[in-house]
Amino acid sequence: MSSFLYRSNPQAHFAIKCLLMLISMHMATLAAANFYQNADITWGDERAKILNGGRDLTLSLDKASGSGFQSKNEYLFGRFDMQLKLVPGNSAGTVTTFYLSSQGAGHDEIDFEFLGNSSGSPYTIHTNVYARGKGDKEQQFQLWFDPTTSFHTYSIVWNPQRIIFLVDNSPIRVFNNHESIGVPFPKSQHMRVYASLWNADDWATQGGRVKTDWTKAPFTANYRNFNINGCAKSSSCQSSSTSTSSSSKEEWRTHELDAAGRNRLRWVQAKHMVYNYCSDKQRFASSVPAECKRSRFL
Ligand SMILES: *[C@@H]1O[C@H](CO)[C@@H](O)[C@H](O)[C@H]1NC(C)=O
Questions:
Q1: Enclosing H/E stretch for 109
Q2: Active site residue 113
Q3: Where does residue 249 rank: exposed (0-12), middle (13-18), buried (19+ CB within 10 A)?
Q4: Is 251 annotated as catalytic?
Q5: Cα–chain-centroid distance for residue 193?
Q6: Predicted TM-score (pTM) of this structure
Q7: Residue 26: pLDDT band by 50, 70, 90 thresholds?
Q8: Pocket residue to mutate for ligand 1, from 96, 205, 273, 275, most atoms within 8 A of Cβ
Q9: Which residue has its alpha carbon closest to ligand 1 atom 13?
Q10: For residue 88, how many C-alpha atoms fall within 13 Å in the half-sphere facing its CB?
Q11: Nearest ligand 1 atom, CA 117
Protein backbone atom coordinates (compact mmCIF):
# COMPACT_ATOMS: atom_id res chain seq x y z
CA MET A 1 0.00 0.00 0.00
CA SER A 2 2.62 2.53 0.96
CA SER A 3 4.90 1.62 -1.92
CA PHE A 4 1.91 2.13 -4.21
CA LEU A 5 1.48 5.57 -2.69
CA TYR A 6 5.17 6.37 -3.09
CA ARG A 7 5.14 5.55 -6.77
CA SER A 8 1.77 6.82 -7.72
CA ASN A 9 1.55 10.02 -5.71
CA PRO A 10 4.77 11.68 -4.61
CA GLN A 11 2.85 14.71 -3.34
CA ALA A 12 0.66 12.64 -1.05
CA HIS A 13 3.80 10.85 0.14
CA PHE A 14 5.47 14.15 0.92
CA ALA A 15 2.40 15.39 2.80
CA ILE A 16 2.22 12.21 4.87
CA LYS A 17 5.93 12.41 5.64
CA CYS A 18 5.58 16.02 6.82
CA LEU A 19 2.62 15.10 8.95
CA LEU A 20 4.48 12.21 10.56
CA MET A 21 7.46 14.47 11.16
CA LEU A 22 5.28 17.09 12.85
CA ILE A 23 3.64 14.46 15.02
CA SER A 24 6.94 12.95 16.10
CA MET A 25 8.45 16.39 16.76
CA HIS A 26 5.47 17.23 18.91
CA MET A 27 5.81 13.96 20.80
CA ALA A 28 9.54 14.50 21.31
CA THR A 29 8.88 17.92 22.84
CA LEU A 30 6.25 16.51 25.15
CA ALA A 31 8.47 13.62 26.19
CA ALA A 32 11.37 15.97 26.81
CA ALA A 33 9.62 18.07 29.41
CA ASN A 34 7.00 15.90 30.98
CA PHE A 35 7.34 14.90 34.62
CA TYR A 36 4.97 11.96 34.18
CA GLN A 37 7.31 10.48 31.59
CA ASN A 38 10.67 11.55 33.04
CA ALA A 39 10.27 11.34 36.78
CA ASP A 40 9.08 9.32 39.75
CA ILE A 41 8.09 10.89 43.03
CA THR A 42 10.13 8.97 45.59
CA TRP A 43 9.32 10.43 48.98
CA GLY A 44 7.15 12.90 50.85
CA ASP A 45 3.77 11.41 49.84
CA GLU A 46 1.27 14.12 48.92
CA ARG A 47 3.92 16.83 49.48
CA ALA A 48 5.17 16.21 45.93
CA LYS A 49 2.68 16.94 43.15
CA ILE A 50 2.83 16.71 39.36
CA LEU A 51 0.54 19.36 37.85
CA ASN A 52 -0.67 20.75 34.52
CA GLY A 53 -0.47 17.48 32.60
CA GLY A 54 3.13 16.86 33.63
CA ARG A 55 4.58 20.27 32.90
CA ASP A 56 4.96 21.37 36.51
CA LEU A 57 6.02 19.70 39.71
CA THR A 58 5.89 21.16 43.20
CA LEU A 59 7.76 19.93 46.24
CA SER A 60 6.86 20.99 49.74
CA LEU A 61 8.29 20.76 53.19
CA ASP A 62 6.57 20.82 56.57
CA LYS A 63 7.73 19.91 60.03
CA ALA A 64 7.06 16.20 59.46
CA SER A 65 8.84 15.74 56.12
CA GLY A 66 10.29 17.15 52.94
CA SER A 67 9.76 15.57 49.52
CA GLY A 68 11.62 14.54 46.40
CA PHE A 69 11.66 12.92 42.99
CA GLN A 70 14.12 11.24 40.66
CA SER A 71 14.47 10.59 36.94
CA LYS A 72 13.17 7.26 35.68
CA ASN A 73 16.35 6.70 33.71
CA GLU A 74 20.07 6.69 34.50
CA TYR A 75 22.53 8.42 32.21
CA LEU A 76 26.16 8.39 31.25
CA PHE A 77 26.74 11.98 30.07
CA GLY A 78 24.21 14.46 28.85
CA ARG A 79 22.64 17.83 29.36
CA PHE A 80 20.12 18.21 32.18
CA ASP A 81 17.97 21.35 32.37
CA MET A 82 15.51 22.27 35.07
CA GLN A 83 13.51 25.42 35.62
CA LEU A 84 13.08 26.29 39.26
CA LYS A 85 11.27 28.86 41.32
CA LEU A 86 12.61 28.68 44.86
CA VAL A 87 10.84 28.95 48.24
CA PRO A 88 9.94 32.65 48.66
CA GLY A 89 10.03 34.80 51.79
CA ASN A 90 11.69 33.36 54.85
CA SER A 91 13.32 30.23 53.43
CA ALA A 92 15.98 29.98 56.16
CA GLY A 93 16.88 26.38 56.99
CA THR A 94 15.45 24.95 53.76
CA VAL A 95 17.55 23.32 51.04
CA THR A 96 16.25 22.79 47.51
CA THR A 97 18.27 20.45 45.31
CA PHE A 98 18.76 19.40 41.69
CA TYR A 99 21.65 16.97 41.25
CA LEU A 100 23.00 13.87 39.54
CA SER A 101 24.21 10.86 41.47
CA SER A 102 25.22 7.26 40.94
CA GLN A 103 24.45 4.63 43.54
CA GLY A 104 26.55 2.53 45.88
CA ALA A 105 30.02 2.88 47.30
CA GLY A 106 32.51 5.12 45.53
CA HIS A 107 29.68 7.12 44.02
CA ASP A 108 29.85 10.01 41.57
CA GLU A 109 27.75 13.12 42.05
CA ILE A 110 27.24 16.55 40.47
CA ASP A 111 25.33 18.98 42.70
CA PHE A 112 23.24 22.09 42.58
CA GLU A 113 21.92 22.97 46.05
CA PHE A 114 19.98 26.12 46.89
CA LEU A 115 20.45 27.17 50.48
CA GLY A 116 17.56 29.28 51.76
CA ASN A 117 17.90 32.43 53.84
CA SER A 118 15.91 34.85 55.97
CA SER A 119 13.60 37.23 54.09
CA GLY A 120 15.60 39.80 52.20
CA SER A 121 18.89 37.89 52.42
CA PRO A 122 20.23 36.14 49.35
CA TYR A 123 20.11 32.42 48.58
CA THR A 124 23.45 30.65 48.23
CA ILE A 125 23.91 28.35 45.24
CA HIS A 126 26.15 25.52 46.34
CA THR A 127 27.91 23.35 43.72
CA ASN A 128 30.08 20.29 44.19
CA VAL A 129 31.52 17.37 42.22
CA TYR A 130 32.19 13.90 43.62
CA ALA A 131 34.20 11.27 41.82
CA ARG A 132 34.56 7.76 43.23
CA GLY A 133 33.14 8.86 46.57
CA LYS A 134 35.35 11.89 47.05
CA GLY A 135 33.93 15.43 46.96
CA ASP A 136 35.44 18.51 48.64
CA LYS A 137 35.21 20.58 45.46
CA GLU A 138 32.70 23.22 46.53
CA GLN A 139 32.07 26.51 44.84
CA GLN A 140 29.25 28.79 46.01
CA PHE A 141 27.53 31.70 44.33
CA GLN A 142 24.88 34.29 44.99
CA LEU A 143 22.62 35.15 42.08
CA TRP A 144 22.21 38.36 40.09
CA PHE A 145 18.41 38.03 40.32
CA ASP A 146 15.76 36.99 42.85
CA PRO A 147 15.30 33.23 42.26
CA THR A 148 11.96 33.17 44.12
CA THR A 149 9.82 35.47 41.97
CA SER A 150 10.00 33.65 38.62
CA PHE A 151 11.38 30.52 36.97
CA HIS A 152 15.06 30.39 36.00
CA THR A 153 16.91 27.61 34.22
CA TYR A 154 19.65 25.62 35.95
CA SER A 155 21.64 23.23 33.79
CA ILE A 156 24.33 20.61 34.14
CA VAL A 157 26.32 19.67 31.05
CA TRP A 158 28.37 16.53 31.59
CA ASN A 159 30.65 15.01 28.99
CA PRO A 160 33.95 13.09 29.18
CA GLN A 161 36.00 16.30 28.98
CA ARG A 162 34.20 18.57 31.46
CA ILE A 163 31.24 19.45 33.63
CA ILE A 164 29.62 22.85 33.12
CA PHE A 165 27.12 24.40 35.53
CA LEU A 166 24.87 27.01 33.90
CA VAL A 167 22.29 29.46 35.20
CA ASP A 168 19.98 30.85 32.49
CA ASN A 169 22.61 29.61 30.04
CA SER A 170 25.42 31.60 31.71
CA PRO A 171 28.26 29.28 32.73
CA ILE A 172 28.97 29.75 36.43
CA ARG A 173 31.45 26.92 36.86
CA VAL A 174 33.52 24.53 34.75
CA PHE A 175 35.07 21.41 36.26
CA ASN A 176 37.52 20.00 33.74
CA ASN A 177 38.67 16.42 33.45
CA HIS A 178 42.14 16.46 35.01
CA GLU A 179 42.64 12.70 35.12
CA SER A 180 45.98 13.24 33.39
CA ILE A 181 47.28 14.75 36.65
CA GLY A 182 45.57 12.19 38.85
CA VAL A 183 42.28 13.93 39.69
CA PRO A 184 39.35 11.47 39.53
CA PHE A 185 36.56 12.49 37.13
CA PRO A 186 33.05 10.99 36.98
CA LYS A 187 32.90 9.12 33.70
CA SER A 188 32.13 5.45 34.15
CA GLN A 189 29.07 5.27 36.40
CA HIS A 190 25.55 6.03 35.24
CA MET A 191 23.83 8.76 37.22
CA ARG A 192 20.20 9.50 37.95
CA VAL A 193 18.74 12.99 38.35
CA TYR A 194 17.43 13.77 41.84
CA ALA A 195 15.55 16.75 43.25
CA SER A 196 14.37 17.45 46.75
CA LEU A 197 13.25 20.02 49.28
CA TRP A 198 14.27 19.31 52.87
CA ASN A 199 15.09 20.83 56.21
CA ALA A 200 18.79 21.38 56.92
CA ASP A 201 18.62 24.06 59.57
CA ASP A 202 21.43 22.40 61.49
CA TRP A 203 23.89 23.79 58.88
CA ALA A 204 22.34 25.44 55.83
CA THR A 205 21.66 29.04 56.76
CA GLN A 206 24.43 31.24 58.10
CA GLY A 207 26.21 28.17 59.34
CA GLY A 208 23.15 26.79 61.18
CA ARG A 209 22.56 29.90 63.29
CA VAL A 210 19.27 30.76 61.55
CA LYS A 211 16.60 28.07 62.01
CA THR A 212 13.56 27.13 59.95
CA ASP A 213 10.48 29.14 60.96
CA TRP A 214 7.82 26.41 61.03
CA THR A 215 5.01 28.95 61.44
CA LYS A 216 5.65 29.67 57.71
CA ALA A 217 5.29 26.00 56.67
CA PRO A 218 4.53 24.40 54.30
CA PHE A 219 7.38 25.69 52.15
CA THR A 220 7.05 25.09 48.41
CA ALA A 221 9.52 24.98 45.52
CA ASN A 222 8.34 24.83 41.90
CA TYR A 223 9.99 22.77 39.15
CA ARG A 224 9.16 23.03 35.45
CA ASN A 225 10.44 21.98 32.00
CA PHE A 226 12.63 19.10 33.15
CA ASN A 227 14.62 18.43 30.02
CA ILE A 228 17.16 15.69 29.46
CA ASN A 229 19.31 15.19 26.38
CA GLY A 230 21.54 12.38 27.42
CA CYS A 231 22.79 8.89 27.00
CA ALA A 232 20.25 6.78 28.88
CA LYS A 233 21.10 3.36 30.26
CA SER A 234 18.00 1.79 28.75
CA SER A 235 18.78 3.10 25.27
CA SER A 236 21.20 1.90 22.64
CA CYS A 237 23.07 5.18 22.99
CA GLN A 238 26.84 4.78 23.46
CA SER A 239 29.12 7.56 24.56
CA SER A 240 31.54 6.58 21.81
CA SER A 241 28.97 6.59 19.02
CA THR A 242 29.55 9.62 16.88
CA SER A 243 26.41 10.21 14.93
CA THR A 244 27.06 12.04 11.68
CA SER A 245 23.82 13.98 11.85
CA SER A 246 24.90 17.13 13.66
CA SER A 247 21.75 17.34 15.73
CA SER A 248 21.71 20.25 18.18
CA LYS A 249 20.36 17.75 20.71
CA GLU A 250 23.83 16.20 20.78
CA GLU A 251 25.60 19.49 21.42
CA TRP A 252 26.35 18.43 25.02
CA ARG A 253 28.80 15.78 23.78
CA THR A 254 31.40 18.40 22.92
CA HIS A 255 30.05 21.44 24.78
CA GLU A 256 32.84 23.81 25.78
CA LEU A 257 33.03 27.54 26.39
CA ASP A 258 33.55 29.96 23.55
CA ALA A 259 35.04 33.44 24.09
CA ALA A 260 31.69 34.90 25.16
CA GLY A 261 31.16 32.01 27.59
CA ARG A 262 34.61 32.52 29.11
CA ASN A 263 33.91 36.24 29.57
CA ARG A 264 30.59 35.51 31.20
CA LEU A 265 32.19 32.90 33.49
CA ARG A 266 34.88 35.38 34.53
CA TRP A 267 32.19 37.95 35.34
CA VAL A 268 30.16 35.46 37.41
CA GLN A 269 33.24 34.23 39.26
CA ALA A 270 34.52 37.74 39.94
CA LYS A 271 31.21 39.27 41.04
CA HIS A 272 29.03 36.43 42.32
CA MET A 273 31.23 33.68 43.70
CA VAL A 274 31.18 33.64 47.51
CA TYR A 275 33.25 30.52 48.16
CA ASN A 276 35.86 28.63 46.17
CA TYR A 277 37.55 25.54 47.59
CA CYS A 278 40.59 26.33 45.46
CA SER A 279 41.26 29.52 47.42
CA ASP A 280 40.52 28.07 50.87
CA LYS A 281 44.06 28.31 52.21
CA GLN A 282 43.06 27.29 55.73
CA ARG A 283 41.37 24.11 54.64
CA PHE A 284 44.03 22.97 52.21
CA ALA A 285 47.02 24.50 53.96
CA SER A 286 49.40 21.67 53.21
CA SER A 287 48.18 20.61 49.76
CA VAL A 288 45.94 22.64 47.48
CA PRO A 289 44.05 20.20 45.21
CA ALA A 290 46.04 19.51 42.04
CA GLU A 291 43.39 20.85 39.63
CA CYS A 292 43.45 24.21 41.44
CA LYS A 293 46.99 24.86 40.24
CA ARG A 294 45.69 24.75 36.68
CA SER A 295 43.78 27.63 35.15
CA ARG A 296 40.34 27.90 36.70
CA PHE A 297 38.37 27.72 33.49
CA LEU A 298 40.40 26.69 30.48
C1 LIG B 1 22.29 34.56 53.95
O2 LIG B 1 22.49 35.94 54.12
C3 LIG B 1 23.65 36.27 54.87
C4 LIG B 1 23.63 37.75 55.13
O5 LIG B 1 23.49 38.49 53.95
C6 LIG B 1 24.88 35.78 54.12
O7 LIG B 1 26.04 36.02 54.87
C8 LIG B 1 24.76 34.26 53.85
O9 LIG B 1 25.83 33.83 53.04
C10 LIG B 1 23.44 34.00 53.13
N11 LIG B 1 23.25 32.59 52.78
C12 LIG B 1 23.20 31.56 53.63
C13 LIG B 1 22.92 30.25 53.05
O14 LIG B 1 23.38 31.68 54.84
A1: strand 109-115
A2: yes
A3: middle
A4: no
A5: 8
A6: 0.87
A7: very low
A8: 205
A9: 205
A10: 7
A11: 1
